[in-house]
UniProtKB/TrEMBL annotation, chain A:
Pfam families: BPD_transp_2. It comes from the Bacteria. InterPro entries: ABC_transp_permease (IPR001851). It is a multi-pass membrane protein. Coiled coil: none annotated. It comes from Blautia ammoniilytica. This is ABC transporter permease. The chain crosses the membrane at residues 20-40, 52-70, 82-108, 115-135, 180-200, 221-250, 262-278, 309-329. PANTHER family: ABC TRANSPORTER PERMEASE PROTEIN YPHD-RELATED, ABC TRANSPORTER PERMEASE PROTEIN YPHD-RELATED-RELATED. It is found in: Cell membrane. Keywords: Cell inner membrane, Cell membrane, Membrane, Transmembrane, Transmembrane helix, Transport.
Length: 341, 499
């Protein structure tokens, strides 16, 4: 960092070095462009649409990872929050109340994680592993044990009742477009910008980085580290709430057994692919958007190559390994080259 | 024939000599006190002896054998045992498992012979008069028992020379007496000890002979009974000339900070009254309580009893945050662990603390922060290219200045500086003293905790010397010199009077 390369190509290389997620995204995008018969605008917009929920959850995960913690419960939380939000919609027929409930309930689920991790100082991995089991189980149990009318008459799925007068409005919101751009995609972009702003330009954002970078140092600098940790879990929960709301708007239902399955892993992968360090203190929120979209594109590539979708996770896993390997080996090679000079 | 003879030992670290032709001779069956100030080279010599560092030059003869390149393993096998200050025990294992680790008794099939190991351990403890249950988990032992376990462990494997590095730091008087009894018994049986300590009363009670180092050089050796604590202290300190005095007397304000019978973890019954604008030195040996007191004043730990008043307000069970809102700041010791946020830039590291006080204005104003940074950069003479550079790109001294700026930025009235010149080169040190005086002139009240007495001598209006958790003496500016402070902080003053 002592000497900065100030030539234009030098700057570009430096920028890409610090934002390697762009390279990953572009590489995957090129493969996508080559494998589909003609890149269409609507095809690309579809990527946006399918990245929305995982991207928004990824933002919360990114924030948690920056403090050096982890949240394994977000996938189950999505199912539980989505299911309950469907019930609220079926009772109230109000989109606003459903949205508020989804966000507040998500924040509450996050608060439970946050209090145990930040205040009681239990290890996040264990706490959220436990709540992952609990939230998923609740989602499935209540689906079987509430009045069928509340879950839209379905037997094992929370269904929005299409007899409700707001049903179509909500569904249109989830599947509509504003001048060819999907609304949910726009929401993802807005949320990303909001979090880029929070993490780069607010005092709170800097505290989050400080806690992850050196917890003892942050504490000695006067930062209430427990409060910061609790807050990131609450924010992540609220984001899952927004994700759950979008999910039911898009699908008109939430399946307690499958909704959000492995989403915690995809969210972590998107955050890591976006350059966020699991040990905390490093990374940018903008990267998460690209990380999430990279993963959605992989899905599309597999569909267009007419491959068995069961190979999907293997490819995602391999790409994640490769990216991290490059991130780790890259600097080592650089250093060796320097020594050789 | 001496048991250990080390002569002309030289050792440098990256070109800086830390041992210059030093010598040490230990006879069979004696307790040899190795003395010197912090950084005199005692630990380095012990690390050379036990094979941790290779030596650059010099001869070592142990038990009649010349030693060439020694490894840790070899020195252990020869019968040299290093009982470290931080005990090297495995807390999650049992007592006997610790003793026999890597040297377990097994039967033919490789199954551990626990019964035999426990019996052997019991026999050993009986012989030494140590009261430890071999099947106890080590984490459940008291510190004194752990210390004795370390020593027992060394003796079990027939150590001929035990190095005790400040073994009494965490022991109470009875435990010290017990330890000394055991050492005296072993001495009679022919075991030798190198005893590293800063506590004069203990040195004069236990040792037979002594060797003094200063700044990596051998100063002298002799019999304890032929010397006095004062003479030994003089050898340790030397005729150091103190650099030109930057100190000047300033008019002081009203009482701003008062401690009454203040007690907490590691310190007790502290009474101190500080006027606005004064510079107070706190000193004492490692663990004497001055650093612990500072942490408690800043709200890192809770006080047990007593009262603290700052700016006329009684502080009760305060947190770091309330201490900060009341105008107290602390530059913590151990910069890397407690101050540096390694993934953040210089500017971010500077403004972090002030932001916790102005959290009601959530958005960072880059312009305002940059102005403040420029102000402090000039005032503290911080040498940095861009404020966007990572904090880790700065030298220790410049980092420390950034952290000083971090706290000045909070507009604190009382600055607690814990070991502020740790790991900083001489030039930067001098700059920091000047700054401290300058700040005091502007009306800041400053408390400095340091083990380096010349620092206090340069700036402090008065100095509180800690011994064993209490203030043993308060010295006025003109009374502060290394000799006197050392006398009180090793409690040599009382030993002298007792004699």
């Amino acid at each position: 960092m002592s000497k900065k390369n100030t030539t234009v190509p030098g700057r570009i290389v430096g920028f890409l070095g610090e934002n390697s997620y762009i390279i990953v995204f572009v590489a995957i995008f090129i493969v996508y462009a080559l494998t589909t018969n003609g890149l269409t605008w609507s095809g690309m917009m579809n990527v946006f649409r399918h990245s929305a929920v995982i991207g928004i959850i990824g933002l919360g995960m990114g924030l948690i990872c920056i403090t050096g913690e982890i949240d394994l419960s977000v996938g189950s939380m999505l199912a539980l929050d989505g299911g309950f939000s469907v019930i609220i919609f079926n009772i109230t027929n109000s989109i606003i109340l459903t949205f508020l409930f989804a966000v507040l309930f998500g924040a509450f689920c996050g608060l439970i994680n946050g209090v145990m991790v930040g205040w009681i100082q239990m290890p996040a991995f264990i706490v959220t592993l436990a709540t992952m089991l609990i939230y998923r189980s609740f989602a499935q149990y209540f689906c079987q044990h509430v009045d069928k009318a509340l879950i839209g008459g379905g037997s094992s799925v929370y269904k929005m009742a299409n007899s409700q007068s707001s049903y179509q409005t909500l569904y249109n919101f989830g599947n509509g477009k504003v001048s060819t751009i999907p609304i949910v995609g726009l929401i993802l972009i807005i949320m990303t910008l909001v979090f880029v702003y929070i993490t780069t330009s607010t005092k709170y954002g800097k505290k989050v980085y400080a806690v992850g970078s050196n917890m003892k140092g942050a504490q000695m600098a006067g930062i209430n580290t427990a409060a910061v940790k609790i807050s990131v879990f609450v924010i992540a929960g609220a984001l899952v709430g927004i994700g759950a709301f979008l999910w039911i708007a898009m699908n008109a239902s939430a399946d307690p057994a499958t909704t959000g399955n492995s989403y915690e892993m995809y969210a972590i992968a998107a955050a890591v692919l976006g350059g966020i360090s699991m040990s905390g203190g490093k990374g940018k929120c903008l990267g998460i958007l690209f990380g999430a979209m990279s993963y959605t594109i992989i899905d599309k590539i597999i569909v267009s190559l007419k491959m068995d979708s069961l190979i999907n996770n293997a490819i995602k896993g391999i790409i994640l390994l490769l990216v991290i390997m490059v991130q780790i080996i890259g600097p080592q090679i650089k250093q060796k080259l320097k020594k050789a000079e | 024939m001496s048991l250990l003879q080390m002569s002309n030992i030289c050792k440098s670290f990256s070109g800086v000599p830390v041992l210059k032709n030093v010598q040490l001779t230990v006879e069979k069956g004696e307790v040899h006190a190795l003395l010197g100030e912090n950084g005199a080279g005692k630990s380095t010599l012990m690390n050379v002896l036990t094979g941790v560092f290779p030596r650059d030059k010099g001869e070592i003869e142990f038990d009649g054998n010349k030693l060439k390149n020694i490894t840790i393993k070899q020195s252990e096998n020869m019968g040299i045992a290093f009982v470290h200050q931080e005990l090297n025990l495995f807390n999650d294992l049992k007592v006997y498992e610790n003793i026999f680790l890597q040297k377990e008794y097994t039967n033919k099939l490789g199954r551990l012979d626990k019964k035999k190991m426990i019996q052997e351990a019991e026999r050993l403890f009986q012989e030494l008069g140590v009261d430890i249950d071999p099947t106890q988990q080590v984490s459940k032992l008291k510190t004194s028992q752990k210390q004795l376990l370390e020593i027992s462990k060394a003796l079990f494997f027939k150590a001929k020379l035990l190095i005790l590095d400040e073994p009494t730091t965490s022991l109470n008087n009875d435990e010290v007496a017990h330890l000394f009894d055991i050492v005296n018994n072993l001495k009679k049986k022919g075991t030798s000890f190198i005893f590293i300590s800063h506590k004069m009363p203990e040195i004069f009670r236990l040792s037979d002979r002594y060797t003094v180092f200063r700044n990596g050089e051998f100063v002298g050796t002799g019999n304890i009974k032929d010397t006095t604590p004062e003479a030994v202290t003089r050898m340790m300190v030397g005729e150091k000339y103190s650099d030109q005095d930057v100190y000047e007397k300033r008019p002081l304000g009203d009482m701003i900070l008062e401690l009454k019978n203040f007690s907490g973890e590691g310190f007790r019954n502290i009474n101190l009254a500080v006027k606005k604008g004064s510079i107070v030195g706190l000193t004492g040996l490692q663990g004497a309580g001055s650093s612990e007191l500072m942490q408690c004043m800043f709200g890192v730990t809770r006080a047990y009893s007593g009262q603290m008043r700052a700016m006329g307000k009684v502080m009760r069970d305060h947190s770091i945050h309330t201490a900060m809102t009341d105008g107290i700041a602390m530059l913590a010791s151990n910069r890397k662990e407690n101050s540096v946020i390694p993934d953040m830039s210089i500017l971010e590291n500077m403004y972090l603390s002030e932001h916790t006080l102005s959290a009601w204005k959530p958005v960072i104003s880059k312009k305002k922060e940059a102005e403040r940074y420029k102000k402090y950069k000039e005032m503290l003479n911080i040498k940095a290219n861009s404020w966007e550079d990572p904090i880790t790109s700065l030298s220790g001294g410049n980092q420390q200045k950034v952290f000083l700026a971090r706290w000045l930025n909070t507009d604190a009235e009382i600055l607690l500086l814990d070991n502020p010149t740790q790991g900083i080169d001489v030039g930067a040190k001098a700059e920091i003293y000047k700054l401290i005086l300058e700040l005091a002139k502007q009306g800041k009240t400053i408390l400095i905790n340091t083990l380096e007495i010349p620092e206090i001598q340069k700036v402090a209006d008065y100095c509180a010397v800690f011994y064993n958790g209490e203030i043993i003496k308060i010295l006025e500016h003109q009374e502060i010199d290394e000799m006197t402070v050392m006398m009180y902080s090793t409690n040599a003053a009382q030993t002298e009077e007792g004699k």
